[in-house]
Structure formats: structure tokens, C-alpha cells
Design a protein that fits this description.
Keywords: ATP-binding, Cell membrane, Membrane, Nucleotide-binding, Translocase, Transport. With 368 residues, the protein is of the alpha+beta class. It has 9 helices and 20 strands.
């Protein structure tokens, strides 16, 4: 085992004939033993990345490395990777044991060794004793566990999961999120999970790659992605956000809604046009005279654990508030927030541009 990334994409592009590129010069690294999520809307390129890692598809340009070795032309069956598909791809005419044992029989493993490995894999996914069950009589969650057991029984270095929870109902889906995360921790191998569900990605991942139109918009931990989005797409796609126009007055001071506020952001030019993000849960309702912002309540919905309140400030900006306090439509109220709740972005800035801007700022000798 080495310290280098288990997977590395180097300037990878995928294009079909004259169609627009599905992936556009994508580069990233995957470390061993972590839970990664490829997150983005339909058609953003996340499943294409998964299929390239699996060997079902080759890049049009660029290189893919596994443990430092180029694998562009390595067949799928020679890669130390197993895939759990969205529909699980189980054999309905085979029972649980034979489904899990299928790959081992292809390898011509001895019967007693197959039995031992299948039993261990089923125990890992909490299906001990289900060896003789028929697939057609199992629930969606049980079928998924069988698919995962079939993947791990081959002892791959990476398990790829292509939206495996999408067909489950909400309660079972939540349960399986916990189970998958715990399974990955127990196995200690690399999971790469594809989803368009941002809550799922935030709940399960060590690291997230947010994709849009064939490019990686941002990568990082769930906390990084949620608290420090680099641009409007990420801020809007990950959770709910209030995004309003603003102007950076100086380091740690920004203007929006016709007022100036202290913030924690720096590295912008004075009077630079920016976008300001404040999450709905970071806004606190108070009286109009005690609020940092004065707003008028336009609408309100009860969401069970909180009220979702839509307001407009005096500059015409819309504000979404998540609060346990009930408001009255038409009332003039105040909104308070901490300076740490304010996040400032440059319109259209990419993650690479974001990193370069802060690096240049640090090199210029600025300190917090």
C-alpha cells in the first residue's frame, strides 16, 4: 500500500462525436479509505466519472491512474473495483447465496472458500441466515444489502455506488444512509457514491465533489461545501440559501440591503461587487427596531420542525427564514444574524480562481 492517491484523474475529457463534452478537462484525486460523493444535477457528468473508474468507458482525452498506474486501457474485469448499480442488477433466478457467490465462481474459487466468504459478506450487511432466500421475495432494502454483499465479497479496493438509494422510500433511504456509512467505516475501503440528493451527500461523505455541466465546481468536506461555497451554483445547489447582491467595503466589512455589516471575509478589492450568502437557519426573527435588517413578511409555510418564512427587505431583496417562531404575513419584523453567518463570494468565480485569489492575498502579507 502506498501513500499516493488510489484514483487520480488528470485533465480528463469525455466527448461523443460532435456533441458537447460530457466532462471538460477534469482533474481530481481520491484517497484511500474515505467515503466520497459525486454530487450534481442530472447530466452533470458524475455517472460518467464512475463508469470511467469502473472501466466501462474510456476518456477522450487525459489520463486515469489507479495507485499511480495509468489504467485508461485496463479492462473492467481487471480492475480492483466493484459497482453497486441503481437497480442492483441482481439475478432473479438465483437465491441470495448464489447472487453473492457469482463473482467468486467466475474466479473458480473452491466451494468451501466461497461458502466462507459469502457467509462473512452477508454478516457484514446484516443478512446472516438469508443464504437460501429468493430475490423476488425480498424488500428493496434487503436487495440492496445483497448487492453490496456481492460487491464486497470480491474484496475490491474501491466500491462504486451509482445512486443505489434512489428507489427506496424516504424512511428506508435514511436508514440505509446510516448503514452504508457504518459499513464503509468497518470495511475501511474507499467508497465513491453518486447522487443528486444534497442532503444525502452532506450526511454520508468525508469529501464531496460538486459537479455542474461537466466540471467540478467545488470539492471539500461537507462543512466546507456548506459553509464556504465558492460560487452561486454551489450555494444554491447545496441546501437553501439567501443570495443577495452586495459590495465589499473593505476587509471584514460588506454592504447589502442598503446597510454595512461586519463579516469575516477578506481578500476582495475595496468597493468590489460581490454576492452575499446567508443560510435561512442563520437568520433570527426579532422586532423591527432591534433587527439588523428590516423586512416585511410575505408568506409562511409550516414544515414540521420549523416555519419557512419568506420576507422582503427595503432594497427589494428576498429573504428566506427557517424559524421555530411563527410570523404574521404582512408584519414588519427584524432579522438578526452573526457576522460569521455572512459568506461573501465573487460572481462566477471558480474554485481554482478562489484559491488563487486567496493565495495572492496571503502572499501580499495580509493577516486576519
Amino acid at each position: 500500500m502506498t501513500n499516493q492517491p488510489i484514483i487520480r484523474f488528470e485533465n480528463v475529457t469525455k466527448q461523443y462525436d460532435d456533441d458537447p463534452a460530457v466532462l471538460k478537462n477534469v482533474s481530481f484525486e481520491i484517497e484511500r479509505g474515505k467515503f466520497y460523493t459525486l454530487l450534481g444535477p442530472s447530466g452533470c457528468g458524475k455517472t460518467t466519472i464512475l463508469r470511467m473508474i469502473a472501466g466501462f468507458m474510456q476518456p477522450s482525452e487525459g489520463n486515469i491512474y489507479f495507485d499511480g498506474k495509468r489504467i485508461n486501457d485496463v479492462p473492467a474485469n481487471e480492475r480492483q473495483v466493484n459497482t453497486v448499480f441503481q437497480d442492483y442488477a441482481l439475478f432473479p433466478h438465483l437465491n441470495v447465496f448464489e447472487n453473492v457467490a457469482f463473482g467468486l465462481r467466475i474466479k473458480k474459487m473452491k466451494g468451501d472458500e466461497i461458502a466462507k466468504k459469502v457467509k462473512e459478506a452477508l454478516r457484514f450487511v446484516n443478512l446472516a441466515g438469508y443464504e437460501n432466500r429468493e430475490i423476488k421475495g425480498m424488500s428493496g432494502g434487503q436487495r440492496q444489502r445483497v448487492a453490496i454483499a456481492r460487491a464486497i465479497v470480491n474484496e475490491p479496493e474501491i466500491i462504486l455506488l451509482d445512486e443505489p438509494l434512489s428507489a427506496l422510500d424516504l424512511k428506508l433511504r435514511t436508514e440505509m444512509q446510516y448503514e452504508l456509512r457504518e459499513l464503509q467505516r468497518r470495511l475501511g475501503i474507499t467508497f465513491i457514491f453518486v447522487t443528486h440528493d444534497q442532503e444525502e451527500a452532506l450526511a454520508m461523505s468525508d469529501e464531496i465533489f460538486v459537479l455542474n455541466k461537466g466540471r467540478i465546481e467545488q470539492s471539500g468536506t461537507p462543512t466546507d461545501i456548506y459553509d464556504e461555497p465558492v460560487n452561486r451554483f454551489v450555494a444554491d445547489f447545496i441546501g437553501e440559501s439567501n443570495i443577495v447582491p452586495g459590495k465589499m467595503i473593505a476587509d471584514f466589512k460588506v454592504k447589502f440591503g442598503e446597510k454595512e455589516f461586519d463579516c469575516v471575509d477578506q481578500g476582495f478589492r475595496p468597493n468590489e461587487t460581490v454576492e452575499v450568502v446567508i443560510r435561512p437557519e442563520d437568520l433570527e426573527i426579532t422586532t423591527r427596531e432591534n433587527g439588523k435588517l428590516q423586512v416585511r413578511v410575505d408568506s409562511q409555510l409550516f414544515r414540521g420542525v420549523h416555519y419557512e418564512i419568506c420576507c422582503f427587505d427595503e432594497a427589494g431583496n428576498e429573504w428566506l427564514v427557517h424559524s421555530t417562531k411563527k410570523a404574521v404575513v404582512g408584519d414588519e419584523i427584524g432579522l438578526n444574524f452573526d457576522e460569521e453567518a455572512i459568506h461573501v463570494m465573487l460572481p462566477g468565480e471558480t474554485e481554482e480562481e478562489f484559491d488563487k485569489r486567496l493565495e495572492a492575498y496571503d502572499e501580499a502579507g495580509h493577516e486576519e
